[in-house]
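Narrative summary of target 7.
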Amino acid sequence: MNDSLQNTVFNKASFEVKLNAIGRVVSPYQEKFAIPRQPGIVSAAKGQVHLEADANNIELIRGIEQFSHLWLIFIFHGSQAQGWKPLVRPPRLGGNKKLGVLATRATFRPNPIGMSVVKLDGIRQEKSANGYQQVIIDISGLDLLNGTPIVDIKPYIPYCDSIDNAHAGFAQTVPQAKLTVNFIASVEKKLARYQPNCPDLKQLIYQVLSQDPRPAYKHKIIDEKIYGMSLYQFNIQWQMSSLSEIKVINIEMNPHASDEMSQ
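Modeled conformation, tokenized:
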């Protein structure tokens, strides 16, 4: 690289880019814990993108129904305030080996930008409480925290977005479900009561827990701790029965949520 070109690159590297959210995600994941580490792993996770402000215009997504999947470009708003680190510990490596943050999909990045492929289930407009038409994109297989800001949406194009002979280092293969998930009798009864209004809840719980959402260093440990996670309006408690089995021991409606599902 010659000196003049090098100087041009460095001078331009200092400029700031302003991004405005064009939408927000409605997601079953109410907290970072238990969110799958990649999209598509939990197919039962269904959500929405609500377009906002000037982007809340059906014309912006005209023709998008031609595509089965979408790229969502988003902001890691749940971890943004914690800053970033040059070295991180990827869970796929057991949390014991450090790699450069730009060699991973870690959330703690120099710029808190993420990308996720989701399945497009439909588009619609609904009249909001304020009387305007809300554009909603229905999606599934998401791995995004509720309220995640979306800064761009692009169609997934198989011929160029999927490369058959690509190499992916430590993440070459699809992670396999590690654990069996069982529900005690009282939880089964509650799930049956919630099923009419939340038919995919049991499958969602199973798929999330089968990946063992505990920190990677605990994956070969049986501990007696009772873990909790929030999905939709529900607080779920579970614990390890063995190295290969999780037992769901309680599910309750969040006291701050509507009680319509318990009717």
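The longest helix spans residues 3-12.
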